[in-house]
Structures are given as structure tokens and as C-alpha cells.
Amino acid sequence: MTTPGVARGLIIAVVMIMGPGILLAGLLSLQGPNAPLSGRAVVGPNGEAVKDEFMFVHRSLVGDGTITARVVSMTGLITYPPPHNDRIVAGVMPWAKAGIIMKKDLAPGASYVAMMVTGTHGVRMQYNFTGDVAGSPRAVSSAAPLWLRLTRTGNTFTGYASTTGKLWTRVATIHLANMPPTLQVGLFVTSPHDLTVAESASRFTSATAVFDNVSLRGQTAHIWRSIDLGAPRGLPGHLYGHAREAAGRFSVTGSGDMAPVGLAGGWPIERGLLGTFLGISAVIAVVAIATRESTQAVDPRPQRGSFVALPTLAAQGFVVGTISFAVGGVGALIAVLLSDHLLRAGGDVVLPVPPSTEFRVILGTALLVALAGGFAVGVSALIRRRGLTVTAGIVFLVVPYALARVNGMPVAAARWLLRVTPAAGFAIQQSLPAWQQTAGPHTPQLGYYPLAPWVGIAVTAAYTVLALSLAALRSYGVSKRSARRVRAVTG
Asked: Rounded CA gap, 444 and 459, in Å?
């Protein structure tokens, strides 16, 4: 392939990286805001995208104080779960939460600390959406109620749990900076949606908790108020939370979540990079077609009009990798920035991440494309057939990624594909961690990878080094055999 042909091929690779994500973002922006049923993601105290939706029975607390309550029972409803999808059933979601809370104010995303019981994850002390400390694994029931206590001393908060209300076990003590003198304290209940990966569906759930023995110590208001915090407007009446009190006994029903939203809560920045696998395929094809057999690490003489004329395979791999890095970097930068701009202009949610994470996703994508180019050089030198080189490169780098993202692929198999194949490097694009306290399944189909970002890219780098090393050994063997034949002929 001539130099102009190589340039055209690389331009196509850039367009392939950018195109799908930008096109999808543009289509979504034309449709207008598409907030999920449970409302838009908001920004938490640490800059992460969070859900802050719960039924809250509250009073104001000025200065230091303590709230204590006994959770008598916890029940719930799940709407239209599979396989029949035709009825509402009783059930409590694993991460449904009920307990006591101290919150900075009533603004969604405000700082808080809470002691709670959960559906199946026991007693927890959670704070500021990402903080999570496990307590007793016990579940609550009418036969086995649980007591919860939360105290404030300045900016120090301590959570306790008890089975009797007399002997208390400390769960954790945490410090929250910049908490105001007056907080909103009280009872809360929430229940996340039932997310089904295979059906790409999210179903409404609710939880109901009964509290008694509620007491407050400190300077507090005398009237309980209630608010369905974070609930969007315009929903059917039965989807809203509610609370009632009778003789000191509270029944509170709520829906939603208090946790990081995860990748399913909006548009993560890596979604603009949907075309990365297409760009990698294009780079592999360019390398395979442009690298002439006569220049693959054996013949050091320049070949006019060829892709690279270098004396060594390592140098050739370095140049190809550098060019591929530039291709990936340009494509990733434009794709992320333009797709995010289109969505925000249309009123859609782009999940916030720190600038360092956005930089890592863009830089990592460029590195992934560079490694793909280097891998293709090694495979091309090993196979020395253009068609087979393209096929092998795509089979090893692209096909495992594509299979792992298919909904029908078993989750365990998908995770193994993204652990042990060169496609592991796609983990560098994951912008949000898999928080354990989120309800959604953390599967490859939803964009969660089994390896940490830089560990995944290291796996791809190892395969690239292996391919180049094997190609160098093969070329060395060919050179030695050729030299022996020359000596035999010349005597």
C-alpha cells in the first residue's frame, strides 16, 4: 500500500472510532431529555453521579445529638418481574434500605450519614453515597427486630446497632467535613429498581419499614415532616413514597436509591467510544496490507512506497504503535468531547467524572489502539499473509470484546474473555467503578470489566510483546537458515 493509501486508511480508522458514539449521541440529543423513571442523576459531595431518592420523615437537629429507632419489619413489592412480567409480587430487593439518617439539608446530593438495615446485606453504615461499612449480617423481621443509633459530636458521627436496645455494638465512626450546625435527621426508606440485563429492563420496586421506639436527643424541632426526596414529577400516584404515624409507630414506604448511579444511570463518557473496536479493526487491516513481506524484520533495505522501511521488527513496531497512538488519541478526544457536548445540549445526563478519569479514558484508548497496531505487526510477521493477519488480529482483539458485550453471553464466560484475551485492554475505558453498594449487576454487558483499567491494558501489552517476540525469533531463524544456504552455495 502506498503512503497516500496508508493515510486514507488511518483517516478511516479515526472516523470509525468517532462515528458510532457521536452518531448515537446526536440521535439521543434530538429526542430531548430522556431521564429514567427514578429521576436524573445528581452530583454527590465528591463529584460523582449519584441517586438520592428516598422517603424521609425528618426534623431539624441543631448541634450535637442522637437519634435512636427500632426497625420492626421490612417488606417490599417488585413490579412485573420475569419470567411472566404480568403481576406485582411481594419481595425485598437486596439493596433496599431502611433506617436512620443525618443529612446536611434536603438538597439532592447533599452530604449524609446513615445507619440502616438492608434486604440481604445486613446492617450497614453508609455516608456520602460511596462510603459503606458493614455491620451485623442479620436481616430484620417482625420476629427479630433491630435497633439502630446514630450520634453526632461536631463533625464526628458514630453508628451503633443492637438486638435488644441495651447492649450496643459500634459499627463505625466517620468524620464529615463542612457539616453545618443544623442537620435534617429522621427515618428513611428506599428501594432501587430491579434491573434485568437480559431484557435490558428496569422495574419499579418499593420497600416498607415499620419503626417504633423512635427518640431524639438534642435541640430538635417538635414536628415530624415528610418528603419524598428526589422523586420526579408526573409519576402515577402509587409510585410515590408515603409515611404515616400512629401512637409513636411509623410506617414508611419509599422507592429509589442512595448510592452512586453506576454506568446504567446515564451516559458514561466511554459510550462515545463505541467505535473503538471498529477503529482497531481498521488499524489492523492497514498494518496487514501495508506491511510488505519483504520488510518484516529480515530485509533492512528501504522499499519505496511501503508502509515502513525499517531495519528491525522492533523499530517497525514502535513506529506503527506511535502512529496508531496518534490515531486513537485524536479519535478518542473528538469522540468524547463532541458526544458529551451534543448530549448536554439536548438536556441529557452525562455522568460526571473527575478530569483525571476523563484523561485516563482518552489516553488509555489511544494506548489500546497503539498496542493493537503493534500486535498486528507481530502477527503479520508471523503469518506473512495479509488476509490471515487481518482475521487473526480481529479474532484475538475484537471478537472477544464483541462477544463479552452481547446480552446472551453468560456473565462468567464474558468475564473470562475479558481477563485472558488481548481484549482485556478495553477495561481502560471504564470510567465508573463497580461500587458494591449499588443494586445494578456489574456485568460486561453493562460496561463493567473484571480487571482494573491499567491491569487490563497490561494484559494487552503482554500479548503485543509476545507477538513481536515470536515474530523476531521466527525472523532470526529464517535469517540463519538463509545464511547457511548462501554459505553452502558459495562454498
From this structure: 17
